[in-house]
Amino acid sequence: MGMADLGNRLYTGESSFDFVGRRKLWFLIALVCVALSAVLLVKPGLNFGIEFEGGSQFRVTGSTDQQAAREAVDSVLPGAVPEVTQVGGDGVRVQTETVSTAELDEIRQALATGLDVPLEDVTSSTVGPSWGQDVTNQALLALVIFFVLVSVIMALYFRTWTMALASMVALVHDLVITAGVYALIGFEVTPATVIGFLTILGYSLYDTVVVFDKVRENTTEAFDRRDRTFAQAANLAVNQTVVRSVNTTVVALLPVAAILFIGDLLLGAGTLRDISLALFVGTLVGAYSSIFVATPLLVVLRSREAGVRALDAAARERSAAVGSSGATAAGSTAADGAHGGTA
C-alpha cells in the first residue's frame, strides 16, 4: 500500500489510527522528553556564545589546526579554556573571556606564529558583557511577543481559547525539547540559534493550525449530525492530515539535514550548524507535537464542556440504537430462515 492509497483510506475513514484514544501514552512520552530536557538545561546547561556572554573572538584564515590555536592562547593566558571551532575549510574561530587591548594583540601574534599564518590573517573583536546581556534580553522579549501574538491570533481565528492553549502547550513542548538537545550536544547558542527557534516554532504552529482547521470542520459537522463524539471527530481530523504532515516534514528535513550533516561534518561549515540543528530537531519535534500532543490535548480541554458532553451522549445513544436495530434485523433474518427451513 502506497502513501497515496494510505492517505485516501485515512481520509475517508476506511482505515484509522487511534491517536486521541491513546493520548495518555503520547502525553507520557512528551512529559518524559520535556522532563529530561529540563534536567539537561540545568546541567550541563546551554553553551551560550560570545554574543550572549561577552568575550573576545579571533578568526584565523589559512589554517585549521585547532590544537595549535589552543596552545597559542594558553601561552598568553595560562589556564584559559578557549572555545575553538573550525570555520569553513581553511580557518578556525577562537573565543575567550574578555581580554585587554594588550592581551588582544599578544594573542593575535601568538595565533599567527603558532598556526604559521601572516598576522593580517588573524582578526579580532570584543563583545562587552552588557551588549551580550542586551542580546539575551531582546531574544527573550522576541519569544514572549511571539507567544502573545500567536495566542491572540489563534483565539480570534478559531474563536475558542482551548485551541490557542493547546497550540501554546505544543509550542512550549517543542521549544524545551529542542533546547534540551542543544544542551545535550553542547552546540553553541548564537543569535542564529534564536532565529532557528523562532523558525521551527512557526513551522510547528503552521502544522498545528492545519490539523486544527480540519478538527473544527469535523467537529462542526459532528455537532450538526450527532453521529460522532467530539473525540472521534478530532481523531478523524488527525488521520486525514497525518500523511500530509509526514510528507511535509520529510521534505522540510531534507535540505536541513544536508546543511547539518554534509555542510558541517563533511565541508566544515561550522557556522551553519547552530541554526541547522535547531531547524532539524525542531521540525521533528514540531511534527510530533502537532499530531500526538496538540489535538489530544484539545480533546481533554474540551471534554468538560456541556455542549461536548451532550454531543458525546447523543452520539453514543445513536450508535447504540443503530447497533440494536442491526442486531434486531439480523435476528429477524435468522428467524425467517429457520421458519423457511421448517416449511
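Above is the first protein from milestone M3; the second protein from the same milestone is given next.
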Amino acid sequence: MPSPDVAGTHRGYVIPIGGAEDKLDNPQILKKFVALAGGKDAVITVIPTASQLDDTGQRYQTLLTELGAGKAHILPIRERADAQKQEYVELLKQSTAIFVTGGNQLRLSTILGGTPIAKTIRQLNARGVHYAGTSAGAAIVSQHMITAGSTGIVPTENGVSLAPGLGLINSAVIDQHFNQRNRLARLLSAVSYNPFLIGLGLDEDTAAFIDENNEFTVVGSGAITIIDPSNIEYSSMAEANRGEALTLLNLKVHILAAGSRYNLNTKQAFIK
C-alpha cells in the first residue's frame, strides 16, 4: 500500500515515464518535472541504481541543472549495503523531488526493496516530495511490477512475470517502451490476474503526471494505453494450460495522447 498521507500535507506527484524521454530538442517532460520540483529552489536526488553505466547519474544531474533545477545530487547506490547508509537517507530527506533512472527494474527491486532508502522514498512522497522515474524507474512505481513478458497482441497464461515494486500507487500496473517494444500482450496478461488493476502502457517520451487525487495528465510526444478490466465478464487465466492464449471478455481500452486526463479512482477518461 502507498504510505498514508501525512496530516496537513498533500502527496507529491508520481510521474512514470515510458523511457527514452526527449532530453535535447523538446525536453517537455523533464522541464515540467523540474518546475514541479521548485525550479531554482529544487533539490533533486538522482538514483541511478537500475543502470550499470557509470555515467548515468552524472548525465541526469547535469541535464536537470541545465533545465533550471537549483541543485541535483546523486545517490550512488550500487548494492544493498549502500541503501542502508544513514548518510544517504539524510541526503535523500533534503529532496524536493526524486528521479530514478532507467536500466533493469530487478536491480531496483533487489537492491532497494525493503531498505531504509525505499521506505524513505515512500514516506517523502506521502509528505509532498515528487517522484519521477523513467523506464525501470517507472515500472517500479507499481505495487505489482512487470519484470518481463511476451511481445505481441494476444495475452497468454505465462505471458508476464511480476515482482513487488515500490507501491507508490497500488491501483495500476505499469509497462514502459509500450508501443515501441510491442508490449500489449504482457500488459493484458498482467491485468488478467486481477481486475482490480488498471493497466497503463506508456510509450517512449510519454509520461503520466499523477496528482494527489490519483488523476493524471498525459505529457509527451506519444500516448498512454489504458486497459480497464473492472467490468470484465470472464478471464480464462485460471483454466488456461501452460502458454495458452487467454480469453478476456469486456475489457475497456483507452488511448490517451498529450493533454488528455484519466482518473484512476473513478476510471474516467477526459479529453483536453
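Note on the second protein: The chain has one domain: 14-270.
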